[in-house]
Specification:
mainly alpha; 102 helices
Amino acid sequence: MADDSEYLKLPIDEQCVHKVWKARLHGYEEAVKIFGRITEEKSPEFSKYAGLLKKFVTDSNAVAQEKGLDAVIAFLERAALAPRTCGEVVSAIVIKCLNSPRTKTREKASEIIMIYVELEKQEVVMEELLKGFTNKQPKIVTACCRLIREALRDFGSKVIQLKPVVRSFGKLLEHSDKNVREEAKLLAVELYRWIGNALKPSLSNIKPVQMKELEEEFEKLPGKPPKQTRFLKSQQDLKAAAEAKGDDEEEEDDDDEVDAGPAIDPFELLEAVDILSKIPKDFYDNMDEKKWQTRKEALDGLLPLVSNPKIEPGDFADLIRILKRTIAKDTNVMIVALAVKCLTCIANGIRKKFSPYAVLCISTILDKFKEKKIAVVTALREASDAIFPSTSLQNILEDVLAALENKNPSIRAETTLFLSRAFRICTVTMLPKAVLKPLAILLVKKLSDTFPEVREGASLALATAQKVVGEKPLAPFLSDVEKIKLDRITECAEKVELANGTTAKKSSKPKAEEKKPQAKAAPVKAAPKKAGARPKSAGAKAGTSKAAAKKTGKKKASSSDNAEEMKSEPLLADEEVVDKATAALSAAVIQQLESSNWKERLAAMEEFLTKVHNMDKNDVNTQVFVRILAKKPGWKEANFQVLNAKITMVGVLAEKANFSRRTASFVISGLVDKIGDIKSGAKVKESLTAVAEATQLGYISEEIVRYAFTEQKNPKNQAETLNWLAQAIQEFGFTTLNVKPLIPFIKMALAAVNPQVRSGAISLIGVMYMYMGGVLRSLFESEKAALLAQIDAEFEKVGTNKPPAPFRGLKSKVPGGSAGGDDDDEDEDEETEEDAAGGGGMNLNDLVPRTDISGKITSGLIEELGDQKWKIRGEALDKVTTILKEAGHITPNLGELGAALKARLGDSNKLLQTTAANICTTVVTAMGPPVKKYVTSLVPGLFVITADVKPSVRAAAVAGLNAFEEQVGLAPFIEDEILSTALAVDKPNLRIEVFGWLAEKLAKYRTLPSDLALSVPFLFAALEDRNGDVRKQAQAALPLFMMHLEFNKMMKMTSKLKPSSKTNVCGIMEKQRPNIPEKPGKPASSGKSSKKKKKVVEEPSPVSEEEPERPAVKGKRPKSAPAKTSKSSKKGKGDDEDIGPPLIMNNGKDKRLKDEQELKVLKWNFTTPRLEYIDQLKDQMQPCVSKAILTSLFHADFKYHIQALTTFTENLDTYKDATMASLDVLLKYLTIRFFDTNTTVIMKTLQYIKAVFTVMADEDLSLREHEASSFIPYLILKVGDNKENIRKDVRAVMRLITKIYPASKMFGFIMDGLKSKNSRQRTECLEELGYLIESYGMNVCQPSPPKAMKEIAGQIADRDNSVRSAALNTLVQGYQAVGEEIYKYVGHLNDKDMGMLEERIKRSAKKNTGAPPKAAPAASQQKDDRKLDPKKGVLPPGWRDQYRNPGKMQRPGTAPAAVKNGPSSRSSNQPKTFSLDLEKLGLESSEAENEMPELADTNVDEIMTEPVVLPKRRIQKSPIPNIMQLNFMVSQVASNDLAVSIKSLAKLDEVLKEPERNKILKDHVDQLLVATSLQMRMAFSKHMGDPSTSREVVLMCRCMVALLMSLFHSKPLAVEASKDVLSDLLNGLIMVLLDDRLMVLEGGPQVMRSVNVLLVKVVENADHSSTMGALIKLLQDCAARESSAPKFVQLVMKCLWRMVRMMPNIIDKLKVDGILLDLHHFLKAFPSSSWSDRPSDTPLRTVKTILHSLAKIHGDKILTYQTLITDPESSEMDGYLKRVLRSNWISSQGSTGSTSDSVNGSMDNDRANLQNGAKTAARKAPPRTNDILAEIFKKIGSKENTREGLAELYDFKQKYPDVDIDPFLNKTSQIFQSYIERGLRSIALERHEKGGVTAPSIPKPRNNNEETETSDSTVPQSDEDIASANVLRERIKVLRARCGLDNGPDLPENKKTDTISGNQEDTLLHSEHLSSHHQTNERSGRHLYNPERISLGSSSSSMTTPSQPSSVPDTNVEDLKKRLQRIKSSLNK
């Protein structure tokens, strides 16, 4: 017995596994007790038994097993780790307990399984129970089936996943054991109780008898839905709620169906069937057969396959394409019906997987609704209903809208019915405003359709939509609908039943109604962990994420939608249109518009246009006018003049009036039909631009592209539509454009036959690429390889160009036009980024079709990826690569591929590692940003691979890291500690690669997570690594770490290092500290730069700026062209076009230039003209010339070329403007003719060129840069022609070019001609170079004289004698210009060449005996260059004859004779000032030379007796420069060479000094000021620090100030300066005043004083509105930059104060509305509340002073000037103005018997009295005395305005001596009162000294015991009133001055700051004060409420503050008194 109880001594856990069953029994019983005593669920005691539970339930002894089950139950009820034991325990129970003969054992086993379900391990439990279905013992199968049924009964379908159960239990119904079958039957009933009819498809294969029995059981079930009775551990709150409910409440609570679980979709329970592999191989071939029987048989064989209820997803693209084609194009009705049925079955079988094909199929089905056969229509309806659930209305919106507008009524009717059915299954979230709005607008329109079926369908669709979204969202669209139609919609709404079964929308529970359809929209993917959490539908998730990602986009969209709603208008009936048009215009005009005579129609249009211009905006009904224009003949107008007038009218209406989208819909078709017309195309584009600006580009672009490619077939229209859209995108931006609907049409254009259409599409794609980037490329991957190559070439042309800043947009969105202006400013950068990424709030990833590859990642593939054999793993990786390659772009769902790739990144085989890394790169690229979810699993493996020794493996890893970084950034790497973990691995290769990678990537980010600091310790370790490459890469990354973490913080982190390491690391950090880069920021997009860009874009060409006012074709009709008659109208189109002029006025030159700059067309650069260049030129010339001329120009016969050129030459004067407008293409054409071999053609070409260039020279026109670059190089090629007459004409042309094109640029082209192999060409080029140097000096040499001379000298060694001679002659010309310096220029020459050069120079010197060896500079140069080096200064290129050397230079010997009647023969190098005008005298030059003058007899005595009168000296004036010369001079002002800049400044100053000459500068003031500002900044930033250029800097500053002084002395020129330019100028001038470096230079102080005076002139004479705006802008910029120098801010404010003083005199010239707008922007950017934290609020007070002054002057009228301000009521400025006006009104109400003039208003009278010497009489106190005194004392109390406040108080006391200021003085301290007294006395002495004005009486504060006495401040009355030492010193100073004594030594230090001449710090108005000092003092003895006089001192301030009293030495007052008495006595004597 002792042995039997020995086990009692063992521990309980050992007893439980004892071999004796009694011991185990005892152990189980004790374990139950132990488990019951443990109160802590996480007690370690439980862990002892967790591994023993399986043995508990599998005990071999039945009794012990039963107790073991008790122990397991006790364990599960209390232990926290109980769920972990589920798998092994449940599997053991299924095998060992469920078949037990003991009932209690089976019951306890069942209870344990249910407890595991409660512990939320239902998945494991169900898996084990389902395994029991395959057990061989029927008892176990029966028990498992029973347990599943009980679990489903108790926990419900929400907890128990039914899908695997339904798939598995069907076999049990056919089991051999009766008990199993019965239990399976009960399970089927229980399943039906929960999921209903969804179970029946799974029972389709059982016997009919069994099915009948089951149906009988199903019918017996109660109708009440089942409810959950047992709850999970996390559902205890639901359990308590269920227990609290009574049985009576259960019936009432119908809505709460939480226990019933989600509805089960029967589709999910079905087994999928793979049909793709079963399709017959000949199916596709049979479908291509012509016999319809063969096609029908193929479809008959396909139909049974696709009829399977659930189809395995796969690639159905080919099958869908065949079916779609059959539906669209097959003519056999039966075949179409069969194809539709097959398509329907496929859509039903794969459901959501049909999404990639849905859009195209829906489009085809909607178009096919035109079929009349009811069988086909029915099939189409079923197909559309089956396809729609796989897509959304947003995806098919464009197709639906197009179908609603289709001409076929059947299509419209069926589309409305389809919408009504689609709306039934939609939820509120599936019908957003962006989708609902366009549909509602069209459906409302269809309510008035002429076909009843369409009207009925539209009513039903609107009723269904209203049932889904409610009445409120649709109310705005139904507001104008007639009542009868509304009643019909309401009637339909009552009958509509939505998919969720609701028939009426409950207004009280809108949220509940929304949730129900959402819950049914998508099946639940997984059971929730908590009972309280409802599963969200996929649609809700998508909507939520989209909303979170694009808040800004939604705001903008909503505001845009609101604007569009405001612009919507009802559709007017035709009769109403006619009535309104007749009322607005007249019946006669309407009648004339329909006249058959085109002249009457034209007259009517002109009158129409005039009336519209005279109408008010609100009176213009655009819909009426546009529809009148469209009346017959409408847009098919035959006369192009009338048509152009109509097109112009559309643009006027769009710009002038409210132009809605409804109105636009009436003109789009007409405009698109004419956009390709040669005569009307340009105007159509202008009108389209205006319409787009009025209605939004996004809308117009969709409409015109859709119409161009679907409604009309003219390829020219299509091409021009695409061209216009490409241009419009750049002008409007990308924000409103919806790319998705445009892509199909662009693809159609790419597939077009016409090359122009393809070219237009490619150009449009190139423009879109600037905004969308590489995503756009993926949308066209299906195109042909040739097209893709062209697209890629276009992308390369665009390159990395940034999209231009948009300058057009919706008219309502003018600047300041939206209430959310601040938000717009804040989001400006975000909008730029959106534009770059696709714009418009559009997610570009949504445009890319993505493939879900999760279905292809099968379990078998995953097993292969993990196989032990590396070859199998490699093959599996290859399969994955193939899948990814075929898929292209993929969805974020990779299935189990992520985990498998993670494992392969650590593969032992290096090749597989590389492959896995490459796959990761591919996955990242294909998935895009959603790949972020795989960062934590894949990136660590990539980091590990970087440690590999093989470079190829490391390169693959780095490529993967780069791909991840591009998509998700660096933040996830850092936040998840992936980076720090990787760097912790001490492997050199890894650290080399990672630190090198970081050095490249860290610089891109402005901010990174602070967790980056975790990587710093490893960085420090790498800095000391023994591997040199590691150290090198770590040092490269160190500055970037310091940039993100800050230097000081990283220095602190070194404290944890060892002392030796710390010293080393700190040293490295100190060395790298200067290399710390600045953090990258968003590019600054200042308003100024955007304005400049806009200005550049909008600037028209000089030739075409006056053209818009002219008719389209300006010029007379050729005499040979007959007028149009009825006969001529019957001729062909070609005959009509031949009648037109040879050259057509065209304004497309700027567009052509822009296209060439943006590489949209081929650049004009070739060796020989290829066909593509000729075709391109032909297209470009088509709008510029008539059709007949175009044919002749490009004819194969050269005779036609001669004929066309002759026509051009003869009509040059008639079509001069048209020639200039098309000069670029004409010159290009002429270059092609240069390659002709026919001499006559070339001569005719040169003749025409000479004629054109002569006209341009006479008209003072210039050749544009792009015109010259495309013409001159080919002209130079012909200068080497072997025919002398051609060379002669080419030389003449080249001489003419110098008159219309800068000679310096021409020099560069000719230098390029020296590279030719043609020696004759090189000779001619050298001679032309010599001519240019002779005519224009050495400055014409480009790129510089030394380089040019060196290259010319290289020609001396040429083999050809003529080349050598010409080169030497050219160098001789250079020698005559610069003298001996020519030898420095040519550089080193060999002895032979140098000898030849020296010999030629000597010979030329002998020939020029009258000239010294060194050529004298030109007379004009000698005059200008007296102070400069004559070698450097030359005349600017382009001044030609007027500025050539008067000394006649010898031409080179090889130069040809001058061309007769050429340009050189008309001009002479001799000055013609004193020469006779032979033509006026009627003499020929030859006669004048041959005739000898006759001598007259003269009486000498008479001559001697006459008084001698000396002739007056007449200075020869240089001629007025032309525009080109002036532009050149202005550009030279900003030259890097100071000498050149000084020369240009001097020349411009000469022009400015003469009023009759300076008028030419009127249009160039801004250009000149910009150049001077730029040179000023350059001089002080670049040249000031160089001692060698200091004198030139001072000289340049003096010249610049003199020039600007002359400019601003001229009022007409000064007012031309714009605000932005003045802002730059004032900023530069003030910066000069603050720069102390100029003061130390010789002449610097004088420059500073001159700048002071200049600043005054700018403020006084420039446009006052622009000046004040510029100063306010500067002040705002200073406030925005806290780092602004205080003195700079002070000087800006002082300039503003001066303008405030000037304001009463200039108020009539001020543009008050603009100034108020600037002030509003200031207060908006820096409101008053923001100044509390600033050290000084003087800028704010300055702004308020300006507002106060404006309000004082204008009164209540000031509020009417706020027109430029959006929402002025919300502006702080508006409130301030109203407060000022209110106080004025109160003051005026309070005053009686006197005028309400303000203090400022009476200032002029006071000044007049003082000037007359009269004493100002005491006045009555002003009505606002307290306010005025409070403001004065406030100023006195501030540090900045103390002096100003004292002066104002003094003036106030002078003006109102009776006013008592005691109340204000009593509130201050005694010290402050004394300070005020001293200050007033000091002011009184100053005034007394200047004008004898007596000081005011200053009352002392009254006390209770003494009275206040008044005294004169000039004479003290008692000891108490004795002035301070400072006052006495002032008085002594006055008296000493009267005695003629020197005040210098006694001058107080605090007054030194007030002196003017004794300081280097000049003051503003310095010269003004010196000149009018006494006059000013006499005129204004006071300055009432005037701001302080402006002082621009740079280092001191003249203001004295209470806190900083004047520093006066402590002197004996009595001694000062005695000295004062002595001085007085001396005066009396």
